[in-house]
Specification:
The complex is a heterodimer of chains A (about 80) and B (about 140).
Chain A lengths: L13 H11 L4 H29 L4 H10 L4
Chain B lengths: L2 E5 L1 H8 L5 H16 L3 E5 H7 L7 H7 L5 E3 L3 H14 L6 H10 L4 E6 L2 H8 L5 E5 L1
Parallel strand pairs in B: 1-2, 1-4, 2-3, 4-5
Helix pairs in contact in B: 1-2, 1-3, 1-4, 5-6, 6-7
The chains are: A mainly alpha (about 80), B alpha/beta (about 140).
Chain lengths: ~80, ~140
Amino acid sequence: MGQPAAKLSVSVPSEIAAAVRRRVGTRGLSGFVARAIAHELEREQLSTFLAELEHKLGPVSNAELSRARRAWPKR
Amino acid sequence: MAETLILDAEAVHALAHASERRVLADRARALLTVAHEKRALVRVPTPVLSEVCRGPRHNSAINHLLNSRGIGVIDLTRSIAQQAGHLLARAKLTSAHAIDAFVVATALQFDTAVIATGDPADIQRLASPFRHVRVFAL
């Protein structure tokens, strides 16, 4: 069973509104917006977490960052 | 679905106890940083929790990591479990490797995925047929 839903009223530029309706239609809009909001909130939380770790442990070395970037799949 | 970083047990442990596990934590932090740059999701498959949670007295660091740090837990569904069974059969592995198979089957739910693991050999064996899943050894 899903979580209870809350209604939000937001304003977006008309071009974005048209693009998202083309992408998901009217019925899929709520789910699309909910996923987008959840993703942005997670990104902010992750950014804060990374900053906390850097404050505690210092920066990640460039060598480790390079290795991680090489491991990531190319799109 | 989106690009995703999947954290195996070693990565979860390292991030939850970063001060005590500096080398592994730095490697996991580097991957988290790249995941953030790529706008990727970061997920822990539910079965991994059975490897890292050892009772209420030991779980606070794990719960701290998984609450509001931008790292989500992804549930084990029937289809993921069944796919894990297929992966074990294909790799000729027994159910002793079930959690590894759950991790790889979870990664297969996404367009592309990187699995951060301390156990790269078995994970690689399960994931090798799939070009959109990468294995990163911590």
